[in-house]
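Q: What changes when flavin-adenine dinucleotide is included in the input?
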Amino acid sequence: MKIANQNILISGASIAGPTLAFWLAKYGFNVTVVERSKALRLGGQNLDVRDAGRAIAQMMGIEKEILAANTGEIGLQFVNKDNEVEAAFPREGTNSFTSEAEILRGDLVNILYKHTKDNVKYVFGKYITGINQQEDSVNVTFSDGETQVFDLLIAADGVRSTTRQILFGDEPKVKFTGLYNAWYTIPKATTDTKWARWYTAVGSRVMLIRPDNHGTTRASFSFLSEDKGYQNLSSSEQKAILKGKLLGAGWEVDRLMEEIDKNEDVYFDGISQIHAPKWFNGRAGIIGDAAYCPTPLTGMGTTLAIVGAYLLAGELSRHDKHEDAFKAYEERMRPFVEKVQQLPPGVPWLAHPKTKLGVSLVNTVAGIVASNFVKKISKLFSGKEKESTAHGIELPDFKNS
Ligand SMILES: Cc1cc2nc3c(=O)[nH]c(=O)nc-3n(C[C@H](O)[C@H](O)[C@H](O)COP(=O)(O)OP(=O)(O)OC[C@H]3O[C@@H](n4cnc5c(N)ncnc54)[C@H](O)[C@@H]3O)c2cc1C
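A: The predicted holo structure follows.
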């Protein structure tokens, strides 16, 4: 039987794109994924696959692989400038920052790619520069000048999606949280253990070093700032900004500064939410961070991306008209997104104190391991604060409906 809207183009090969491709291919669609980078982008720290996201991973048959790719992190320590532990939150504890399914972003991207590459056409090193919609098709122009015709187009190309810009202009709002974050991989040092180590420096700066399962270490550096558009700068300009911000922060800052120059995939961005009043325009739409990034502060970005992909593919499989599928999907997904996007009060300012006094509040008070204040911070940053409230979304069994 011929499927309506057989040929689907997806833009972006990270989490949302390949998950959507997985399910669409399973339902019999012809799927092409175009990725701007020359190869999969495998950088970043840990991602959390939880709640509904975990349930979908199970349905995809990849849950075991996700668990097997565990980073091995045994918990989180708050450390001071001398690397002395002020507070510790073991993985098994009730307020743990580390979850059971702790996986590196790159490992998850690789798993999704491995499970789709035989049924989906991947094209790397290209991106969409023009979209011309007809009654029954979408004509797409790519960065190399090629044009191609598809039945539908879904952009899953992240928080800075240029495809979203082509489709919706400035209508979707990019809400900056006041926090910049850089993630990059560094060589393992003797101070690196199986614990994640969190260091708070004056000037609203936080460094978070986490173990990985690749023999390296994952570094994150975040700082509060007004919106400076740093994400639009060249890689060398970004590195200069980061080194300037790190200067004088203490602890293991020399190492973090030194490694920035050597690193080819420093992911540096203003942490922003995307609020888009419309997710679809004719035969094209947006999903994942491109449509509804909740920020890593919620710990739910990956789960939203996976859930959105599952639901959209499912609705497309059971509706002949794309408009009906898009509507049904949005009815399910929007309330969930709105719930997840609510940041708890105090995020991200609470965990990024400006002054020495603020730092000592985080560190000295953290000396009392049971401190509710520190528990609160660690919960906020791991998104655990949301866990009890945000997992509720129905996942229909589309295969049997
Ligand atoms: C390199 C990198 C590192 C990250 N590190 C972390 C981290 O450490 N912690 C964390 O919580 N989140 C991190 N994130 C964000 C996290 O992956 C997402 O929040 C979440 O998983 C949702 O994924 P997504 O597929 O919607 O978007 P993203 O993961 O942002 O993926 C978007 C994909 O689209 C590609 N792309 C961008 N523009 C275009 C275009 N015009 N055409 C085609 N392809 C395009 C990108 O290269 C990328 O592969 C990172 C993202 C990236 C890209």
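Observations recorded in class: The CA atoms of residues 62 and 111 lie 8 Å apart.
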